[in-house]
Structures are given as C-alpha cells and as structure tokens.
C-alpha cells in the first residue's frame, strides 16, 4: 500500500513538467542554440578555425564609436524613461488621481511597452517626421521644427522614439514597488515630524533605490538590443551596434559574418551584465518591501 502513492507521484511528475515543454523547446531553439552559435562564431575564422582576431577587430574607431553611441543612447533613454515613468506612476499611486485612471494606464503601458520595430518607426514618422501630421500643422502656424534643430531621423529623434516603450515599461515595473510602500512608514515619519520631502528622501527613496536602479538596468538592456526601430527610423546613417551588426551579418560592409558574431557577442556580454544587475537588485528590493 505504501508503494502506490509513490508510483502515482512518479507517474505524475512527467505530466506536471509537460506543461512547460513548449517553453523549453522555444527557449532551446530560439535562445540557447542561437546564443551558442554566436559565441562559437565569435571565436572562429571563415574556414572554422579558432581565433581571437574577431574580438581584436572590435577595437577599430568605427566599431568603438558604434558601441559608445549605443551605450549613450541606452543610458539617456533609460534615464529619461525612469524619471518620467516614475513621476507618472507616483502620480497614479499617491497623487490622488481618480481610480479609473490606473486601469487604462496599466493597459496602455502593457501594450506600448511591446510596441516597437517598424510599426513604431512608421507611427513617429507619420506624426512628427519631416512631413508628419504634427510637423505640417505646426508649420502652418509658423513653427518649423526642422529650423529649430529637431530632426526625428537623428540620435535625439531615436531617443524620443525609444521613450514610447521605455516609459510604459518603467510604469509597469515600478507601480508594484510603489504599492509595496507601507502606509505605516509614512504615518510613522509624519508622527516624528518629517515633511513629505523628508519622507521621500530618507525613507521611501532608499527603499525604492534597488528597484529604481534595477529598472534602469533593464531599460538600458531593452534599448541597447533594439534594432528594428532604429533601422526603420534612421537606416544605416546612425552608427549604433545593432545596425552595424545587421550590416555585417548581411555582408553589406565587409562581408565578415564572424565579425558580426563578435559584435553580437559584445552585445550579449553588455546585456547580460545589465540584466544580472536588474535581477539582483529586484530580489533585494522585494526582500525590503516584504
């Protein structure tokens, strides 16, 4: 009789794991195997031999500039996304806005945080591009955005475009952290004579700091790996790593796919570091908010 439940438990185990089998298959086919191919290709010559030359070739002015431009683009868009998203989330959670505002904002944020690529680029070009709707309307009233120095098809135009999905992603992540701030902490600070500014500076922000820094790292990785939006918006005229990688893999520039693998390997290293920072700080933040 004692062996029956054990056998049933043993028979049930494969069925319990069967539910995540599709995820495991997709992860292996579209994440693990391609990543292994990139890592191996970064250390191979065209005929399959082992070499470090591909990584050494990354130390060229054009590629170094591409990495620096990508890092700067990611830092700026992540910083602005965190600042604006945090302000919007705090207004919803603590600002006394109607309760009906939160649900539509969260729904929109869920959609917008995944709206990228060619559709996003087209939407911005049609709206504030050189011949976009708002650009033409402003020109009719005497405001010429191009004359004022604004160009959507540029570095800062790409920053503005990235904010469309960076800000909603920040809202989605930081609102649960703001909900985790206990009302008792604010009441205790008020009883001790702390002002609202002192509460935020000495209590709330130190507790939220791991979440803020971790979300910044996630937004940095999110922007650093984006390629479709950048390529559709600016084409090859903006020297960033994803566009240079795309050109290398297609063979448009030097026809060296292994150098493209080395470029991708560098991107993987940077995004892994950023995501590791996010995971570590997220765990620490959840421990603080419990």
UniProtKB/TrEMBL annotation:
Belongs to the binding-protein-dependent transport system permease family. CysTW subfamily. SUPFAM superfamilies: MetI-like. The chain crosses the membrane at residues 20-46, 66-94, 115-135, 155-178, 199-221, 259-281. Keywords: Cell membrane, Membrane, Transmembrane, Transmembrane helix, Transport. GO terms for biological process: transmembrane transport. InterPro entries: MetI-like, MetI-like_sf. Its main location: membrane. It is found in: Cell membrane. The lineage of its organism: Bacteria, Pseudomonadati, Pseudomonadota, Alphaproteobacteria, Rhodobacterales. This is Acriflavin resistance protein. GO terms for cellular component: plasma membrane. Residues 67-278 form the ABC transmembrane type-1 domain. It is a multi-pass membrane protein. The keyword Cell membrane applies.
């Amino acid at each position: 009789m004692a062996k029956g439940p054990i056998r049933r438990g043993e028979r049930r185990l494969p069925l319990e794991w069967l539910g995540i089998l599709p995820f495991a298959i997709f992860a292996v086919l579209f994440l693990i195997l391609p990543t292994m191919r990139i890592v191996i290709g970064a250390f191979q010559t065209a005929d399959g031999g082992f070499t470090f030359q591909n990584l050494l070739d990354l130390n060229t002015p054009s590629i170094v500039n591409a990495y620096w431009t990508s890092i700067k683009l990611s830092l700026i868009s992540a910083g602005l996304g965190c600042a604006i998203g945090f302000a919007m989330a705090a207004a919803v959670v603590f600002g006394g806005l109607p309760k009906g505002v939160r649900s539509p904002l969260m729904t929109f944020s869920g959609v917008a945080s995944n709206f990228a690529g060619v559709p996003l680029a087209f939407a911005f070009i049609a709206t504030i591009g050189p011949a976009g709707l708002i650009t033409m309307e402003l020109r009719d009233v005497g405001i010429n955005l191009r004359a004022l120095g604004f160009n959507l098809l540029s570095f800062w135009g790409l920053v503005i475009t990235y904010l469309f999905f960076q800000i909603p992603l920040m809202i989605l992540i930081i609102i649960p952290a703001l909900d985790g701030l206990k009302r008792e902490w604010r009441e205790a600070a008020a009883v001790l004579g702390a002002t609202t500014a002192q509460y935020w500076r000495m209590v709330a922000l130190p507790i939220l700091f791991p979440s803020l820094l971790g979300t910044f790292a996630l937004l940095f990785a999110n922007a650093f790996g984006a390629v479709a939006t950048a390529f559709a918006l600016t084409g090859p005229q903006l020297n960033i790593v994803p566009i240079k990688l795309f050109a290398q893999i297609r063979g448009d520039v030097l026809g060296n796919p292994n150098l493209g693998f080395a470029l991708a390997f560098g991107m993987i290293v940077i995004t892994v570091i950023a995501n590791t920072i996010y995971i570590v700080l997220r765990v620490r933040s959840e421990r603080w908010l419990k």
